[in-house]
Specification:
Layout lengths: L4 E10 L8 E5 L4 E5 L7 H16 L7 E6 L1 H5 L4 H8 L3 E7 L5 E2 L8 H14 L11 E4 L2 E4 L19 H6 L16 H11 L2 H9 L12 H17 L12
Parallel strand pairs: 1-4
Antiparallel strand pairs: 1-2, 2-3, 3-5, 4-5, 6-7, 7-8
Helix pairs in contact: 1-7, 4-6, 7-8
Length: 254
């Protein structure tokens, strides 16, 4: 099922904590979203990674905010006084990514109690998708209504940044190790290998088909068309699942 589509009605405020300068946006469905802008410097691949990895997180039982596509039109940018923000909005006219805003949530830190089960699921997700952006400096975890929610997956699936000249070989990604050092859940690495097969089994071909299908065509820009790019994402993720799991961090790696 594709992402639900909404239209932005008001830009509320920028969020300057992140390098990509997301912002709070209100939409015509009366929802409030953290908007990830297509015109940000990281490019459209970040939006694609957000959609795919968010879908995978849900499949393995992690909480992650609902996503929508947000249509941004010219009047939203016209009335923004901050020149930096106005430039970003003008560069992002069209379809952007909206992440459901969780009012009252707060950032994860070492005082938050975490179960072994949740910790290893977060570790496995990040190792599988090669996400390098869940460190103590930037945990990308929120606590909301007593649950831990995973957010901000744009740094995952690095392989697509090499596709400008053509689709690369998924075999390299299939074997690429993932470094656990600095990860917020690194202390749980000993418990990861025993549950890895069970988590991997949940990511079936049907799951890959579904999560990749959610990505809008207009974000799938590359050396081949959207359908072929979707097939490439599925091939890379399937190759990583079917490989030797050399990417799994082991005892002593933390």
């Amino acid at each position: 099922m594709p992402l639900p589509l909404v239209r932005a009605t008001r830009f509320v405020t920028p969020l300057r904590e992140g390098g990509s300068l997301p912002g709070i946006v209100e939409a015509d469905d009366l929802g409030t979203y953290v908007c990830k802008f297509r015109g940000a410097g990281q490019g459209l691949g970040v939006l694609v990674a957000e959609v795919i990895v968010s879908g995978l997180a849900e499949v393995i039982g992690l909480h992650t905010p609902a996503l929508v596509g947000i249509e941004l039109t010219e009047p939203i940018a016209r009335y923004e006084a901050d020149q930096e923000v106005q430039d970003l909005l003008n560069a992002s006219l069209g379809l952007n990514l909206g992440v459901d805003f969780l009012p009252g949530s707060f950032g994860f830190d070492s005082s938050v109690e975490v179960s072994d089960e949740l910790a290893v699921r977060v570790l496995w997700l990040d190792a599988f998708t090669a996400n390098v952006d869940r460190t103590w400096r930037n945990p990308n975890l929120l606590v909301w209504h007593g649950d831990i929610w995973v957010i901000d997956h744009g740094a995952a699936l690095y392989f697509h940044h090499a596709w400008a000249g053509g689709i690369t070989d998924p075999a390299r990604f299939a074997q690429q190790p993932w470094a656990v050092e600095g990860h917020v859940m690194a202390g749980y690495v000993d418990a990861l290998v025993p549950v890895s097969d069970g988590l991997a089994d949940q990511v079936t071909d049907e799951v890959l088909e579904r999560v990749v299908a959610r990505v809008p065509d207009e974000w799938l820009v590359g050396p081949v068309g959207p359908d072929d790019l979707r097939a490439a994402y599925r091939s890379f993720l399937r190759a990583r699942l079917d490989g030797s799991r050399a990417w799994l961090p082991r005892r002593g790696a933390a």
